[in-house]
Write a structure and sequence with these properties.
5 strands; alpha/beta; 184 residues; 6 helices
């Protein structure tokens, strides 16, 4: 995030480790009872939204898999963004997360774009990122376009010679073979 690498990072956030039969995860809410926390999780959950904003991501959003059209627009915006984009996607686990289900999320999620949120307002983005309860914001929290991506800053990546993977290594065949032999 800090380097503003041109990358889209999608967090499929179901607040539980569902593929391993229901253990508490870093985003599980405090008190959640799971196979590994039968008396309830004692840890506070991490929140990817403010973490990404403070960490230097230049596009930070949240979507809900129950609102597919909105999610598609958020993901499209993230992919088209030049720089590090993080999208936290609430995708409830229908098998192991009995607390935060589709039915629980549906009335709570509110689309930021419909509420007039300004994604250029750092403090408001952080504040809305921490919001959780009767109203849970989804949408574009933060977007910054004045910072060049790492790829834009690295002269070797935009000198007109194309991607590094397609360039000639600049060493002789004998040198390349000697290097390969040394590594084997």
């Amino acid at each position: 995030m800090r380097r503003n690498v041109d990358l889209t990072y999608i967090v499929m956030d179901n607040q539980i480790y569902g593929l391993t039969t229901g253990q508490v995860s870093p985003t599980s809410v405090k008190g959640m009872k799971t196979k590994t926390t039968p008396h309830g999780s004692v840890e506070n959950p991490i929140n990817p939204i403010p973490m990404a904003i403070v960490g230097g991501a230049t596009y930070v959003a949240r979507a809900f898999s129950g609102k597919q059209k909105h999610m598609v627009e958020i993901l499209k915006g993230a992919i088209q963004h030049r720089g590090f984009a993080l999208v936290d996607v609430f995708s409830p686990c229908v098998t192991y997360n009995k607390d935060n289900t589709y039915q629980w999320f549906n009335p709570r999620v509110k689309i930021l774009e419909e509420q007039g949120h300004n994604p250029a307002d750092f403090n408001k983005a952080i504040e809305r990122g921490y919001q959780w309860g009767d109203e849970i914001p989804i949408g574009l929290f933060w977007k910054r376009t004045d910072l060049p991506s790492l790829e834009d800053l690295e002269p070797g990546l935009h000198d007109g010679n194309g991607p590094l993977a397609y360039r000639k290594p600049g060493i002789s065949k004998e040198q390349a073979n000697a290097l390969i032999q040394e590594l084997l």
